[in-house]
Amino acid sequence: MDGSGRLVVVNTRLYWPNGLTLDYAADKLYWVDAKHHVIECAGLDGSQRSIVLDRGLCVHDVRAVL
């Protein structure tokens, strides 16, 4: 756990990833991207990336809090 052996799992089609969770039983990584309004998942090695949900998510608007 010293950071050696790091692996980039996802580095494309990301803008504002603001939620992350691991499903150890299924060996999957899930994340939320508030800019693209999607929940996505991939294998822990980045393989088999897919969109889990892309409709009905709340919209984050920074201007609303200014």
Widest sheet: strand ordering: 1-2-3-4
Largest sheet: 4 strands, antiparallel
Using only C-alpha atoms, the radius of gyration works out to: 14 Å
Instruction: Choose one word for the global shape.
Output: globular
What's the number of helices? 0
- Unreliable stretches covering 5 or more consecutive residues: none
Topology (SSEs and partners):
Elements: E1 17-23, E2 28-33, E3 38-43, E4 50-53
Antiparallel strand pairs: 1-2, 2-3, 3-4
Note down, in words, how this protein is organized:
The chain is mostly beta strands and 66 residues long. It has a domain at 17-54. Helices cover 0% and strands 35% of the residues. The chain is built from no helices and four strands. A four-stranded antiparallel β-sheet has the order 1-2-3-4, with no helix packed on it.
